[in-house]
Amino acid sequence: MEAIDIVRKARDVNRLKAMDYIEYLCEPFVELHGDRLFSDDEVIVAGIGMIEEYSVMIIGHQKDRNFGMAKPEGYRKVLRLIEYAQKHKMPVITLIDTPGADCGIEAEQRGQSSAIANCICNFSQLKIPTLSIVIGEAGSGGALALGVTDEIWMLENGVYSILSPEGFASILWRDTNRKDEAAKLMRLTSKELMEDGFVDKIIKEDGGELYHLKNEVLKFLEKNYLLSTDKILKKRHNKYRKILGG
Questions:
Q1: Which of 102, 113, 189, 217 could form a disulfide with 69 if both were Cys (CB 3.0 to 4.6 A apart)?
Q2: Burial class (CB in 10 A: 0-12, 13-18, 19+), 36
Q3: Domain count of the chain?
Q4: Nearest to 200 by CA among 126, 125, 135, 133
Q5: Mind listing the pLDDT tens digit for each residue in 218-242?
Q6: Which residues make Cβ contacts (< 8 Å) with residue 167, sequence separation at least 6?
Q7: Inter-residue contact 142 to 174 (CB < 8 Å)
Q8: Residue 193 sits in which domain range?
Q9: What is the pTM (predicted TM-score) of this model?
Q10: C-alpha to C-alpha distance for 105 and 39, rounded to whole angstroms
């Protein structure tokens, strides 16, 4: 399968969305709303859930709302909730599915860039276990805001990149019709990102991805739930030093 075919699969409107995963993983799940500054962004679905005996904060992009493009208030909601999770020693799980953050003028006026930057910064310093899972399309800073975590997983037909193949082709060749070629060059598939050391685990898509994912998440929680702060921070530091070639 060509890279562009996987991009199409990642964007398929019939793919499972964040709430599908949350409802399968968590029983019960209590959704939390608002950034306490401006409003609630419904693109970011987030709240406290129980995965078997483990309490977690789970956060995701809901792709069928504003195409999964979160506004600044969405990312500030994330900041509020990960701070709450750290206070109560709950692991954070994020479900990434976005082509990028909302880039409208109102989002920029309300501080989109700083909201994303603060998410990246705060995630990197959390003293609790963190896990991000790309369930579809992960694009640009909108994805990275939820992706600086201890481990990064991807669904088999997910993609992760700095921009879309269309955007890449437009910038490099001024021709969006070369998106197939761009997708191949970008190394944005789960398999390629695993080979490059960016992704830690790939969840197979064979019709049982909900079941597979829950089993793997439980293994992650069993291994990391009681990990000391020093070990959490050291593990995360080493991971990103390795990714950055340091």
A1: 102
A2: exposed
A3: 1
A4: 133
A5: 999 999 999 999 999 999 999 999 8
A6: none
A7: no
A8: 3-244
A9: 0.96
A10: 17
